[in-house]
Amino acid sequence: MRFQVVLLAAASATALASAAHAQAQNQDQTAVEEIVVTGTRVAGRSRLDTLAPVDVVTTKALQQRGTTELASALAATVPSIDFPRPAVTDGTDAIRPATLRGQGPDQTLVLVNGTRQHTSALVNLNGSVGRGSSAVDLNAIPSTALDRIEVLRDGASAQYGSDAIAGVVNLRLREADHGGGLTVTYGANVTTVDTPWAGRKRDRTDGRSTTVAGWQGLKLGQDGFLTLSAEYRNSDFTNRSDIDPREAKPRVTGRFGDPNVENFGFFANAAKPIAAGWEAYGWYGYNHRDSDSAATFRQASSATQNVPAIYPNGFLPLITTDSEDVTAVGGLRGELSGFKIDANVGYGRNDLDYGVENTLNASLGAASPTHFNAGGLTYDQWVAQIDASRAFDVGLAGPLNVAFGAQWRREGYQINAGEPNSYIRGPFTTAALGAQSFPGFQPGNEVDTHRNAKSIYLDLEGELISKLTASLAVRYEDYSDFGDKTTGKAALRYDFTPSFALRGAASTGFRAPSLQQEYFTSTATVFIAQTSGGVTTNVPFETGTFPATSAVAATLGATPLKPETSNNYSLGAVFHKGPFELTIDAYQIDVKNRIVLSENITGSTTAAPGSTSRIIGDLLAPYAVSAARFFINGVTTKTKGVDIVARYRISDPQAGDFDLTASANVNDLDVTRVPATSTLSALPVPPALFGRQNVLRFEDGTPGHKVVLQGDWRKDAWGATLTTTFYGDVLSPGSAADGSADSRTGQAGIVDAEVRYRLPFGLGVAVGADNLFDKYPRAVPANLNTNGLAPFSSFSPFGFNGRFLYTRLSYSW
User: Fold this and answer.
1) CB 236 within 8 A of CB 209
2) What is the pLDDT of residues 242-269, one digit of tens each?
3) Got the DSSP string for 424-464?
4) Are 263 and 300 within 8 A, CB to CB?
5) Residue 653 has pLDDT above 60, yes or no
6) What domains can be seen in the chain, in order of their start residue?
7) Are 502 and 494 within 8 A, CB to CB?
8) Cα–Cα dist 218/651, whole Å
9) Number of helices followed by number of strands (H, E) in the chain
10) Where are the strands (E) in 562-655, listed by range?
11) Which of the four pLDDT bands, split at 50, 70 and 90, describes residue 126?
C-alpha cells in the first residue's frame, strides 16, 4: 500500500509537471520567492534554495478551513505532521501533542521568532500518542499572531540545540504597523454515527464552537511597529460513546470525544529602532484555557468506587484543567564591526491546575465531597542567547557565512499537592483511595527543582565551488544534571541547473531528559486492560508513577535518565521551473536510548510465594501501591521515510488563479531494542518493561502514509479551497499477546471544502465543511469495548467527530 502511495504522489507530481511545462510555454511565470530563516543563517535564502527541506505555511492557508486550532490546521496542511485527538486521557485531552515524521512530540523543537518556546507542564501518561512526553502547546498561540510557520524537516540539534531530532517548527510572528482584521467563526459537528452496541445509526449535532479572533497593527513612534493579536474560542464537548451494555437498562453512560474548552489568547509583537543600525524588539504572549473532559463511568454497583447514597445510578467523573501560559521576550539586534548581532532574554511559564467534578472519594463514604482540587504542575524556563553572523570572502566561489553564538537556559519544575480529601484514604479501607478518576497529588509528590544548561555553536555555510554549496555546524551543550553533549551536522547541495538540484545532510542529535520525565511522581487509580477468554476488561490498580531516581524505582532496577541520541540522514532533489516546483526528500532517523514511560509493573502480596507477582507485590508493599511505573532509557528506533511536495500555480484571466499542491509523507518506524533491568530480568517470569502494546504504539500509532491533495482558487471576489487527505491505516494495540484485542482504524480519505466571497468595505463571508462526507474510522469491535465507552480508537489520525460544518465572517481594514 505504501508503494501505491508513492505512485499516487508521483503520478500527481508528474501530472502537475506536464501541465507546468505546457503552461510555461505560454507564459513566463516564476515561483514566488519565499525567504526562510529556519535551517539556514544565510540572509535571503529562499525555501527552494535551502540545503534541507523547509515547508512554509502562511496564516492565510491555516485560516481557510473550519478548525481554529493552530496544531489541527498545521497537521491538515503538512503531511509529515500528525495531530490525533485522544479522549479519556486526563490532561492530554486538553493539551494534545503533535508529532513530526512519526517521532515523539518532544523530539521536535518549537521556536517563536527563532527563540526556544517553553513546553507544557503536562506529562502525557495514558495510552495515547506521545505517552511519556511533554511537548509545547501549539494551541496556546493565536493563529492571528502569526505571519507564517516554517517547518524544517531535518535533524537540527547542532544548529538549535536539544529536542530537534525530527526537526524544527518556527512560528514567525506578524510584523505590521497598520491594518488589521477581525473574524468570527461558528461551527458544529453535524454527523451520523454508527456504533456496534447501539444497533442503529444515530444523528448527532454537538461540538458547537465559536471563535472570535483579530489583530491590529500600530505605529510605534515614527519608525517602529506594535502588532496586537487576540483570540477567544468556546467549544462544547463531543460525545461518540456507545450504549453501555452492562446497565440493566442500556444507556449511554460515557463521554468519548473532545472536551469542553474555553480559551483566550493574546499576543503583542513590537520593534523600534533606537540607534543607527540597532533596534529593540520583543513580544509577549498570554493564554488561558479552561477545559473539562470525562473519565470512565463508575457503575452504581461498584463497591470499591461508588457510594450509592451519593450516586445511586453511578456517575461519570469530569477532570478539569486550568492552563495558564505566559511568554515574554526582549532583545536587541543590529550590526557591529560587520557582524549581525541578535541578543535576547526570554521567559516562559505554564501552570496547569487539576480539578475533579461529579466524583467522590469512596473511602470517605457518604461524607465524601463531590468535587476536589487535585493540585497542579508548573514548568518555567529562562533563556538568554546571543547570535552573531557575517559573510567573509575567503576565496571560495561565494561568500562564507560564519555564524556563532551562545545560550544559557534555566528550567524549573514544580508539583503542588491537592486538597487532602482528593488523595487520602478514609475509614472505608476496602474502597479506592482519593478522588475517583484523578486522585490529587499528595504532599509526598511535591517537587520544586530546577537545572541550568549552557551551549555554544558554530555554523558555517557557503558555496565551495561553482554550484556546490555546503554547510557545517557543531554545538556543545552542558547540563547541570547529567553532563555535556556535542552534536554536529554537515549538508551539501549541488545545483546542476538553475532548475534542478540535489541536496543531502547527515547529523547527530540529542534530546535531554525533560524535568517532567526526571521528577514527575503521582499515585492514581489506573485502569489496566486485562484480557481473558477473548474479552478485554479494564481493571483498576492503585498505581504509582515514580522518578527513575526514587527508592521504589531503584528497587525495580531503574537508573538515572540520560540523553537520547540520534543520527539523521537525508537525501533529496529539488526541481522548479516556471509555475511548477517539486521536492523529494528521503530520510532515515536512528534514535538510541529513547526515554519512555515503562509498563505498569503489577504485583500482589497474596500471590503464590516465589512467584513473579508475589515478589513484585512484596517489593511495592512498603510504598502502598500495587503497581508502579517509571521513566527509563533503552528504546532504540529506526525510521525510514520520504516526503514529496509538488506545487503548481496557474493564472488565467478568464478562469482565475489556481494554486495546486500534491504532497505526501511515507513513514516506517521500527523498534529494534527495548529496555530491561537486571532486577526484573532475574524474576521467574520477567515482566516486560516496554511490552508489545507500547512497541506497536510506536510503530503503528501514526499513519504509515498520508497524502494531501489541495486546490485553491481565486477569481475576483470569489475563492474556494478543496482538500482531500488520504490517511493510512493505524493500529490500536490491545493487551492480548496474540493480537486478538487489537483494532485498526482502516484507511480513509477525508474531504474538506470551503467557498469564500469578498464583500465590499473589507467584509468577507465563508462557508465550509471539514470531513464533508462524514467519514469515521473503523469501529472498535464490541467485544473490545465491553462498556461502550470508546467505540473508536483515540489513535485515529483524523479524529472521530465526523462532519464539521462552519461559517466565517471577516472584516479587514
Assistant:
1) yes
2) 999 999 888 999 999 999 999 999 999 9
3) ---S-TTSPPSSTTSPPPPGGG-EEEEEEEEEEEEEEEEEE
4) no
5) yes
6) 2-812 (2.40.170.20)
7) yes
8) 34
9) 9, 34
10) 564-577, 580-597, 601-602, 627-652
11) confident
